[in-house]
Sequence to fold (168 residues):
Amino acid sequence: MQLSHEQNNFKKQQFPIILLCDNVTNAPNIGSLFRIADAFGVEELIFCGEHIPIGRRMTKTSRSTENYMKYRVESDALSVVEEFKNLNYLIVSLEISEQSLPLHQFNFKLDKPIILIVGHENFGISELMLKASNAVLHINMYGHNSSMNVVQATGIALYEITNQLSRK
Fold:
């Protein structure tokens, strides 16, 4: 029998992870990012860019998680990353690049809080942001396609990160 939200016995936990969404502008994706961030115990969501559609169109997929997830909207992602770099955060970009490493091979530790950067639905993460990162990681893919939806990729990355952190 399927369990209801009230019947599940998942332990609520928050991880030292901030999800930075660089120019993610699709309202359903934003709503889903709220939901996935809540599901994985992310500390905060930061949406960076112009015209971030926080509002009615986004709430169809967020399922009210925007009401209790800590979030903010900033215009310049690079300045936010520099701010957290100065606070000794591990800056990780989720992007396929010439230098990226497979996500599952990276060793996440509890000694540093993490900024996980995900990028624009069509253009990914800018070269400047990649250079500002401590690590660029990708998800191995085995089909014909070389990319996936930002929410799907974020879910896979957060699963791997939180799985590693919860074992430490």
